[in-house]
Specification:
Blueprint: H1 2-18, H2 30-37, H3 39-61, H4 63-84, H5 92-109
Helix pairs in contact: 1-3, 1-4, 1-5, 3-4
Length: about 110
């Protein structure tokens, strides 16, 4: 469950990062071009995903721990995207493999 919520937060922050006017866009892929061409819809989707994740995290872990975990995830993924995305070329298979590894570890441990 935590891997799913973390992935949703990461995707929402990635969408918000790509809708920013201050970012210099060097990478081209179909997802980022769609996000950049539909900024208003992308922001609505991203904020909706963040609210849904906050609600789901609060239901799953309780109000205090869930909201705290949400903000910890948001701070971590925000700083990771801001520092790593401009420098490292990410491909879809890299992201999918990291999420799959997270699912496997979460399933084995819990």
């Amino acid at each position: 469950m935590q891997t799913v919520l973390f992935s949703i937060i990461a995707f929402a922050f990635f969408m918000l990062y790509n809708t920013s006017q201050k970012v210099k866009y060097e990478k081209k892929c179909s997802l980022t071009t769609w996000i950049r061409s539909n900024t208003k819809l992308s922001k609505i989707i991203a904020y909706s995903l963040l609210v849904i994740t906050l609600i789901a995290e609060s239901i799953y872990d309780g109000l205090g721990v869930g909201s705290f975990t949400f903000f910890i995830y948001l701070m971590f993924i925000g700083s990771a995207i801001l520092t790593l995305y401009p420098m490292i070329p990410f491909k879809a298979k890299h992201v999918i493999s990291v999420v799959a590894l997270g699912f496997i570890l979460e399933f084995v441990i819990f």
